[in-house]
């Protein structure tokens, strides 16, 4: 198997899930204790979060580019970014990086199209829901994403940053997320993208009526398929 280079820590909660999923996929595939070699660069999310909300994306792109180059030099053969929002700077991150990169939005879009859906709701951070970097990737695959109302976007964003990124899960926030899933269903969505790597901590196939695409799960499957 090829060596995986992961850029994580954004947040650590979702990076833990990546590590667990990738190793379990390997165990299941080989039906033994085989696990992939993973090189992880885990960043200080407090610095990232401040730069995000200050809209200093150029600085963030430079930061991730440095990490990507370090992983490549350390022997990584496939690169992945353990966050949806930071894919906003993926082009800058990949400057002068030669190893293949598995893009989370492309992985998700391909799976949704293969399953025959067209109008996925996108539940994520405000950056991901309101800016073009992610929606355009989905649209390039022929999808017509639906985003929640402004009030619901605020709820999603605040719960993600104030609770889920600290690995805090509450029934109150879960109920809020479930109601938002119902909202987008009523607005015509035929599926739901858990478009922040932490959203799957509250929503899943058991509490959402529409088909659910957990971007972490979809992304990890694509990453694993790229190394075997």
Question: What would the keywords be for this entry?
Answer:
228 residues; alpha/beta; Rossmann fold; 2 domains; four-stranded parallel beta sheet; three-stranded parallel beta sheet; 10 helices; globular
Quick overview:
By secondary structure, the chain is an alpha/beta fold. 50% of the residues lie in helices and 12% in strands. The chain folds into two domains: 4-103 and 217-225, 3-Layer(aba) Sandwich (Rossmann fold); 105-215, Rossmann fold.
Overview of this structure, please?
This protein is an alpha/beta fold and 228 residues long. It has 2 domains: 4-103 and 217-225, Rossmann fold; 105-215, Rossmann fold. The chain has 10 helices and 7 strands. It has helices spanning 12-30, 45-53, 57-73, 90-93, 104-114, 126-130, 132-140, 150-162, 171-186, 215-225, and strands spanning 4-8, 38-42, 78-81, 101-102, 120-123, 191-194, 212-214. Strands 2-1-3-4 form a 4-stranded parallel β-sheet, with helices on both faces. The protein has a 3-stranded parallel β-sheet with strand order 5-6-7, with helices on both faces.
Write the layout of secondary structure elements.
Blueprint: E1 4-8, H1 12-30, E2 38-42, H2 45-53, H3 57-73, E3 78-81, H4 90-93, E4 101-102, H5 104-114, E5 120-123, H6 126-130, H7 132-140, H8 150-162, H9 171-186, E6 191-194, E7 212-214, H10 215-225
Parallel strand pairs: 1-2, 1-3, 3-4, 5-6, 6-7
Helix pairs in contact: 1-10, 5-10, 8-9
